Amino acid sequence: MGPSPDRVKNCFYFADGIACPNCRGLFPVASFYPMTDEFAWLLRYDDRGDVLLEAAHAKRGAGEPNAAIGYLDEAIALGGEDRGFARVALADLLFELGRYDDAVTQLETLRTELPVFPAPCELAAELHTTRGDKQEALHWYSLAIANLPPHEIAELDQSTGPSCYANSLLTARRRVRRALGFAHDDWDNCVIPVEIAIPGHIRR
């Protein structure tokens, strides 16, 4: 028989509004909670990576960086795209803690890990932008674009092009290049101006 409902109610994940991956692994929430709107979301929240990232965010916000690091380490161990998100979150936290070398190590590992996922690279670019390192931000935006899957690139030629993910990355990269004083390159010329998505404007 699994743990009692009281144990789960007292679990810090539950207190933070997060479904505990440890508790979920022992028994289904539905076995002791009625299917009400209050608890139905717990049954839909079944991505362990997301749970760990949310837990780390909650612990960081609560001033418990060591606990946050622990959950990020767990998320990294899962692999996949969540590993990338966790490395960027961990690097950001380590920078905040003054552990510069450790933060750089996380980002360097992300840079060389395969496969490369665009979204964590975008987050790394945003992290460097926030820190005022435009050159590194440019590198990460370029890495994100270079690893977009073909269907994401193809969307640039569709009616949804102005609002697609590829155009968002291209636009952000061009913004950084302009801030650095660089002339437009081929990728900059692929940016679709947002105004063409406005009725009455024609794509050129």
Automatic annotation (TrEMBL):
**InterPro entries per record:** TPR-like_helical_dom_sf
The record's section on Gene3D superfamilies has: Tetratricopeptide repeat domain
Pfam families hit by this protein: TPR_19 (PF14559)
Q: What is this protein called?
A: Tetratricopeptide repeat-containing protein
* Native organism: Actinokineospora diospyrosa
